[in-house]
Amino acid sequence: MTVLQERPTKQPAKRRATRSRGGGVGRAFVLVVAAIVAMPLVLLVLNSFNTAAGPTDANDYGLSNWTAAFDNAGIRDALWNSLTLSITRVAISLPLSCLIAWLIARTDLPGRSWLELAFWVGVFLPVLPRVFGWILLLSPDYGVVNVWLMETFGLDSAPLNIYSFWGITWVHLTSVTVYIQVVLLVPTFRRLGAALEEAARVAGASTAQMLARVTLPLLSPAIIGVGILGFVKSLEAFEVELLLGTPVGLDVYSTEIYNLLNGEVPNYGQATALGSLFLVILILLGIAYALYMKVPGRYATVTGKGYVAQRMRLGKARWPVAIVVYGALMIGLVVPTVLLVLGSFMTRYGYFDLPDTYTLAHWQDVLGQSILPESLTNSLTIAGASAVVAVFLYSVVSFLLVRGNSRWHRVADVLMWVPWAVPGILLGLGILWLFLDTPLGSVFYGTIGGLVFAIALKESPISTMLFKSSIQQLGPELEESARVSGASWGRTYAKVVLPLIAPAAMTVGTYVFLNAIGEISTIILLYTGDSRPLSMLMLEYSFLGSMEAGSVVGLLITGIVLVVVVLSRLWGVRLTGEKQP
């Protein structure tokens, strides 16, 4: 294999001067932002050793929180459940995601562009409404599928149970994990050079042999990275475990943290120790991945001739494969959504044999309450403000990171990725400590501004990455011309740089808005009644057992997401940032 390396070229002295000019202010700004991004997790670890009874008590440090956490059988069980659920989901979803990504990126599968868009829709659709749909399908008491199986085969008990280990796994696979992994893997499969694949086919290798011996080994670093991210995201899906695991005593670390902080006497010490323990596990996972990447021969870069591969023809299997893929997508996206619609109109959730099965009463009740317009306003305000903050803040940060060349810029670049390495409930706990331990609490705690702060912090990695990719394509000549003409740095950025990266700004704004609308795990420890968004209202209805009202709110959130996705598509916003060959 030939690996083509581009020889570094010396940068002209004038350009080097331009990159470093005004570096002091830029470095300070970037470091401050990066420090704020990393600070919640620093405080999380620090306060895991704080043995004070509450945040307002005098600090006293020791190991009692950690020893109490390890002595707690419930915490040990929650840790074990978290690890086994996440490992199981990734072990099942990663091979499926690789296959689907390969079909979209490298074959002549019919409608692959629309299929990719459908997976992006699956990423942004809120999970909790689909959980309501799956309950209506697979509940052991009234699930449609269970009732049909029992009547058809004369069974005495329901064969399927959504309130179980495998029920939770099924919901994650059909609602979360596969979608995230597919949208991350498609660009990787699309960029892979075709020379070795073509050589394998010429040598007589079958498609399966080519995938196993050429394609997947070449992409193993990216696949393992996506698997690790899928593991972290599996830990983040707090609301699925809360709704399906709590009734049968199947707690995971995220629900255990929530329970510790929402008891009659909040146990901040053990909750923080539990969060810090998982942070250590994630750090060790990152170190293991970094060591794997350093092993010689683990990966190769293939460029040059044959970069764009001719799509592999599936032949007679083309339409059967398409039917299977589209059928699976329909089961994961459409079926639970249809049941969600039915559930919102049911007189009593799940009971199809009542004389008056359907009613408008739940819609009238929810729409008639003052809490709904307040929550809707909060949701749109939080999502819109988070998008605006992310666009303006991270575009500036990304510009300074790209144009800066000091070691401090590189440190800040690493710190900006911290929020993506931890689950949402863990980040939310860290932000809670940031509010409790610093003057920020008097401004942000329990307010809409605090939720915007948390969501903007969570979205810093993807926002920075997208802006950096766009800014790296801009040469510094236009900026130099503006500066020579007397424009200040701010005016140069506003009049020259920002218009050129407008497509990336639209993508970042849309991405953050869609994620913010359905966010639960990151903000569940931070909101109050005055700042309650629709996502938390939906969760509260489910706590109260009012699944019908929760379904109504879930449909409203789903409708907002679909409208924004359709409008973004019409406006030409490509969330993938990729052009299909």
Word description of this protein:
- It is a single chain.
- By secondary structure, this protein is mostly helical.
- The chain has a domain at 72-122 and 176-302: MetI-like (MetI-like fold).
- Helix content is 70%, strand content 0%.
- It has helices at 13-20, 23-47, 64-71, 73-106, 112-124, 127-138, 144-153, 165-191, 195-202, 207-218, 220-236, 238-244, 253-261, 268-294, 318-345, 361-368, 371-403, 407-415, 424-437, 440-444, 448-458, 460-471, 477-484, 489-500, 502-517, 534-543, 547-570.
- It is globular, with a radius of gyration of 25 Å.
- 41% of the residues are buried.
- Mean pLDDT is 80; it is low at 1-22, 297-307 and 577-581.
Core attributes:
581 residues; MetI-like fold; mainly alpha; disordered C terminus; 0% strand
**SSE sequence, one letter per element:** HHHHHHHHHHHHHHHHHHHHHHHHHHH
User: Structural class, judged by helices and strands?
Assistant: mainly alpha
Query: Looking at this structure, what is the CATH superfamily of the domain at 72-122 and 176-302?
Result: MetI-like
Largest sheet: none
- Helix content range: over 70%
Q: What's the shape?
A: globular
CATH fold name of the domain at 72-122 and 176-302, please?
Answer: MetI-like fold
